[in-house]
Design brief:
Blueprint (H helix, E strand, L loop, with lengths): L33 H13 L6 H15 L4 E6 L10 H21 L4 E6 L12 E4 L2 E4 L13 H4 L4 H22 L20 H22 L12 E6 L3 H6 L1 E3 L6 E3 L4 E4 L9 H8 L4 E5 L5 H11 L8 E5 L6 H14 L5 E4 L6 E3 L5 E3 L1 H18 L5 E5 L34 H16 L1
Parallel strand pairs: 1-2, 1-14, 2-5, 5-8, 8-9, 9-10, 10-11, 11-14
Antiparallel strand pairs: 3-4, 6-7, 12-13
The structure holds phosphoenolpyruvate (PEP) and manganese (II) ion.
């Protein structure tokens, strides 16, 4: 990541940074205390940026390579981060899983991997209902730790704007550790075995990874013996991303970049707009259109080619490769049917967007036990469908967007180290959607690497 000597400043209204306020915004909490909200916004506006504008531009450049078909985007992390998950163990395990997946994809798929975490800011959740009822008691739904608490009590579920400041601090300490891990030696490719140490004996995917790590070692020893010891092996570029959902927060962290006079949302490198908030005439798209960060937009099975084309006009009027990523989440049973028209019409229009596959959100169901879950086979099948469609059209399957954790949870069923429906209760820890555990994540990386190579 590049350093920027420039200081960003807080924008005034003339910059358009707050134009979203004139438009309808769905999925926003009903804050009970507007003075407390104003206070916290003022506080956030005074805080230093979490990321530099120059780093956001660098990610746009990396994504431009993905758009050209020269690299692959791995975007992954929790569905919802939690304040009590800000611990060295959790962060390291997640990072380790992403680094292992990336090593598999780079080596077995022979492609550079752009690594973007759903991390250091993924604290806000869109929900299908505003309230939740249990045993005859109705309370506001949990909207993520940035808004209210997970516990089902009136106090905890009451939206509290002070949580937006906690979100900033939780993101800052997470990002600080991520930066230390990725530049301070831990992500050095010579650690390719160390990332697997606590894992190898217990799992088939861990053993498969170990064999690959041995090959990487051999290749590195060979290069070393030839006198090649590239700096690129020592550190890793790792970017942060989250859904830009709570606009009071995102807007309070928007700054004018003094290099260019442009607006950047400095709460994370990449911001995406979710399936429920991508209405063209609403506040989220307006906000996203004003900032220069690379932007993702989720496209579900009801998206039309017209929607996609209008999103391009709004968010990428200059057709800058890397600026816009479409994150398709069709469902395994619909991807082969729905995706081709979208890609064809967008390609015909000449926009170079990045296409990536979120194989999670179209494949969620409720198990008999009441757990929200996903079948690993469905996840895999959607990715397969995504690759087939791109292959058929001669376009580039640019990457995957997955919900994962480095911990051995039991939230999704299937995988090589199989988890059964009856196992779900054992370690079901997500605050929102079911995540792939480490073993399932590695399985997926091996299978995607095969698809990429074929
Ligand atoms: C998510 O990514 O966690 C999410 C809510 O996705 P979507 O907007 O695609 O439903
Ligand atoms: Mn989710």
């Amino acid at each position: 990541m590049t350093d920027s000597p420039h200081l960003e400043t807080t924008p005034d209204d003339a910059t358009g940074a707050r134009s979203w306020r004139d438009l309808p915004a769905v999925q926003q909490p009903e804050w009970p205390d507007s003075q407390a909200l104003r206070d916290v916004i003022a506080e956030l506006e005074s805080y230093p940026p979490l990321v530099f504008a120059g780093e956001c531009d660098q990610l746009t450049e990396r994504l431009a390579a993905v758009a050209r078909g020269e690299a692959f985007l791995l975007q992954g992390g929790d569905c919802a981060e939690a304040f009590d998950g800000v611990s060295a163990d959790h962060i390291r395990n997640k990072l380790k899983t992403m680094l292992q997946m990336s090593a598999v994809l780079t080596y077995a798929g022979s492609v550079p991997v752009v690594k973007v975490g759903r991390i250091a800011g993924q604290y806000s959740k869109p929900r299908s209902k505003a309230t939740e009822t249990r045993d005859g008691v109705t309370l506001p739904v949990y909207r993520g730790d940035s808004v209210n608490g997970f516990a089902f009590t009136p106090e905890s579920r009451r939206p509290d704007p002070r949580r937006l400041a906690r979100m900033y601090h939780a993101s800052a300490s997470t990002l600080n550790l991520v930066r230390a891990f990725t530049t301070g030696g831990y992500a050095d490719l010579r650690q390719v075995h160390a990332w697997n140490r606590d894992f190898v004996r217990s799992s088939p995917s861990g053993q498969r990874y170990e064999a690959l790590a041995r090959e990487i070692d051999r290749a590195m020893n060979f290069m070393n013996a030839c006198g090649v010891d590239p700096e690129e092996f020592r550190t890793v570029e790792f970017f942060s991303s989250h859904e830009g959902l709570i606009l009071d927060y995102e807007s309070a962290l928007t700054r004018v970049d003094s290099r260019t006079g442009e607006l950047y949302d400095v709460s994370g490198h990449m911001i995406w707009i979710g399936e429920r908030t991508r209405q063209l005439d609403h506040a989220h798209i307006e906000f996203a259109s004003r900032i220069r960060n690379p932007i993702g937009v989720k496209l579900g099975p009801t998206s039309t080619a017209e929607d996609a084309l209008q999103l391009i006009d709004r968010l990428d009027p200059e057709r800058t490769p890397g600026r816009l990523t479409f994150i398709t989440r069709m469902g395994a049973d619909k991807v082969r049917d729905k995706l081709p028209t979208l890609i064809e019409k967008v390609s015909a229009q000449g926009a170079q967007v990045v296409w990536i596959c979120d194989p999670m959100h179209g494949n969620t169901f409720e198990a008999a036990s009441g757990h929200k879950t996903r079948r690993f086979d469905d996840v895999l099948d959607e990715v397969k469908g995504f690759f087939e469609v791109h292959k058929g059209l001669g376009t580039h399957p640019g990457g995957i967007h997955v919900e994962l954790t480095g911990d051995d949870v039991t939230e999704c069923v299937g995988g090589g180290d199989e988890i059964f429906v009856d196992d779900l209760h054992q370690r079901y820890e997500t605050a929102c959607d079911p995540r792939l555990n480490r073993s399932q994540s590695l399985d997926l990386a091996f299978l995607v690497a095969e698809m990429y190579r074929d």
